[in-house]
Amino acid sequence: MPVVTVEGRRLPLSNLDKVIHPDGTTKGELLHYYAVHGSVLLPHLADRPLSLLRYPDGPDGGTFFTKNVPPGTPDWVNTAEVPRSGGGTQRQLVVADLPALVWAANLVAEFHTPQWRAADPAMADRLVLDLDPGAPATVVQCCEVARWLRDRLAADGLTAYPKTSGAKGLHLLCPLRPTAPSGAVSAYARALAEEATAALPGLAIATMAKRLRPGRVFIDHSQNAARKTTATPYTLRARAAPFVSAPVTWEEVEECADPGRLAFTLTDLPARLERHGDLMSGLGTGRGAAPLPAAG
């Protein structure tokens, strides 16, 4: 088993030649992606308890979701005690530096984080809306809904940052200052989704009923609940190819007429980062942050 040194930490890395994604991408290539792009990913993991959707044998080999600290976690990897949804607490990873990120990436997992920080789990510092298209709708229709939501959020003083989900749809995230109770954020997001449904009949829908979703964009507001998580910006996803949950520009959202134009893999990221930098840096710095408006 090869051992590498990352910022002074010696890390054993396993099965680097193992093909993880059906397109031929290996585990070594996944680890290289995270090691090279840690500087943009780490701010979005900072101080947030990490949940892992693991796929060590590839997306076709089965996936499993875990929140608890994995067995064998080094003692230098940060952890935090956070509330369980059913009561009590559980200990979760908090990735704070590049060695911890590479160690976690060696587990082969999607990274998912909540809308709150470990130090204050009752208070959200951002709002998220997950736009999920029901076939035959695609990300093109998600972009239409996203534009309406951007303008509506702006009317309430909120700045929306878009990213691809890394699957079929889009995520919109808004920084909140000051923080707000997760219940209040959920109520506002639900009211906004219902308002969008009324404004965009036949295109947007705010309910999860699958029979109503074909051809429409489901605005999933539920991920604002304290117990829920969302794919972290720049995480790889367990898909046939190593798609990334990639930040995008509003110009790209406005001009999207082809679903393939908003699908990015790990090989696309270097050029995008050189061109745009971290399009979601404002989430961490609070650029564009505003107080949560009252629901309704």
TrEMBL record:
It comes from Streptomyces marincola. Pfam families: LigD_Prim-Pol. InterPro entries: LigD_pol_dom, NHEJ_LigD. The keyword Protein transport does not apply. GO terms for molecular function: ligase activity. This is ATP-dependent DNA ligase. It comes from the Bacteria. Residues 26-279 form the DNA ligase D polymerase domain. Keywords: Ligase. Gene3D superfamilies: DNA primase, PRIM domain.
